[in-house]
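Mods, move this if it's the wrong board.
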Amino acid sequence: MSEGSLKPRLQSDMKSSMKSGEKARLLVIRLMLAAINQIEIDERIELDDARVISVLDKMTKQRRESIEQFSSAGRDDLVAIEVAELEIIKEYLPEALSDTEIAEIMDQAIDSTGAESIKDMGKVMAFLKPRFQGRADMSKVSQLVKSKLS
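Not the wrong board. Structure tokens:
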């Protein structure tokens, strides 16, 4: 993708959703654009794709947490809504990494940072975050790193 191509793609998809009458999809795209625009206004900057991906990644994390909470509360109706929103958001994120790819990159991070114990977890996570942004669930990665260093 070229620099800054995600936001125009979202805007284009918003127009397409309006024309085709896909109300659920339109709602989620508007949520994504609102989150992006809020940061742009607050910080007076134009977000690049990396920053847009971090915003969308945060939104996926929020959806996953909501799904867990609604599931434990037995609210299947709300779970279905969150899952549908999560699927739409995922369309705009880079392809997710496989468990094997995550393990390989994690091992490289541990080797290159010289991490030996749980005290070095911050160094490893700082190394991994830019590589995994939008491509892996960082809370799961954190648990894997923790178990590897323990």
